Amino acid sequence: MDNQKVKDAKNPSGPVKVKSYKIWVDRNLCIGAATCIAVSPKAFALDSEAKAVILETADEDTIENIIEGTKACPVAAIFIEDEKGNRVFPK
Ligand code: SF4
Fold first, then answer.
1. Would residue 2 count as lying in a domain?
2. Domain named 4Fe-4S ferredoxin-type: which ranges (predicted)?
């Protein structure tokens, strides 16, 4: 992830706020498959431990595409909640 900054250095895998949504990656579940990155390279990257982190540029992607990236994760390791705390994915 050269030249890519995580949104929150203290919580590289979140939870972080992206637009009005809360997004995080469960690092224990993530297997580094990188499917999320293929779909949303602005939002996700792998760190040195091959775990997905959330990038500063996530806000430049659409929430729809980030949700697509989340759905593409083979182990459902990415979680999204809306501003009211309702789970967007996984349901
Ligand atoms: S698709 Fe899932 S398992 Fe793969 S890197 Fe992303 S969060 Fe991790």
1. no
2. 21-49
